[in-house]
Amino acid sequence: MSFYNRHIMPSLINCLCGMSEITDQCRKLVPQAEGLVVEIGIGSGHNLPHYDAGKVVKVIGIDPDERMWKAGRDRVRQSVVPVERVGLSGEQIPLDKHTADTVLVTYSLCTIPDPVAALHEMRRILKPGGRLLFLEHGAAPEESVRKWQGRIDPLWKRIAGGCHSGRPIPKLLEQAGWKIGDMEEGYISGPKPLAYNYLGSAIVA
Q: CA-based angle 168:169:171, to the nearest 5?
């Protein structure tokens, strides 16, 4: 593993995830979680301050990156809800079927190598009647922006830990058997190829 991957990239991702506009988006979504929550790609715990302690009994965070988890140890200590981390990726969730009341995924489907497999796993662990809450950046509606997403992807993936700038989030959800409920989409601040945002919820179709 290179010096960049060991020391620079985790700090870069931690900073990006803490940007004010991303935090504003998380504030809209995370308080909707309830019951036992499985958070895919918990990283350094930027979502932890936004959980509603009156609705959430526990958060199980799925993330393979020990470095990011260590970077968030203060957030874990200060969390208003109990938190546990499981060090595997979203394609391999070591939990029983129908474990979670809510599955939360924020800015992680862009990075998971096989997002459809991960979304199938999320379906498996969700209880009947439960919800998937998602917040992701992805494919822009304009062809000109999508072309730029394709152009920058080879370099961006190397800089940002495998992040894809233009994955078609609604299509991936539908491929994995999810039915999208309410969804907001549009640009947030930042370079257009990296700033088209999807925020919403889904249930098992």
A: 70
* Cα separation values, 18 from 14, 26, 107, 146, 170, Å: 6, 10, 12, 25, 25
CB 47, CB 104: distance < 8 Å: yes
- 58-82 pLDDT, tens digit each: 999 999 888 888 878 899 999 999 9
Which amino acid does the sequence have at 113?
Answer: P
> Within its chain, how far is the Cα of 13 from the centroid?
13
Alpha carbon 73 to chain centroid, angstroms: 19
pTM of the full predicted structure?
Answer: 0.91
Within the chain, how many helices (H) and strands (E) appear? 8, 7
Nearest Cα neighbor of 47 from 127, 113, 104 is 104
Cα separation of 41 and 146, whole Å? 25
The CA-to-CA distance between both ends of the chain, in Å, stands at 40
Q: Which residues contact 74 (CB under 8 A, 6 or more apart)?
A: none
Burial (CB < 10 A; 0-12, 13-18, 19+), residue 180, is middle
Ordered domains of the chain (ranges, CATH) = 3-204 (3.40.50.150)
Do residues 67 and 46 touch, judged by C-beta distance below 8 A?
no
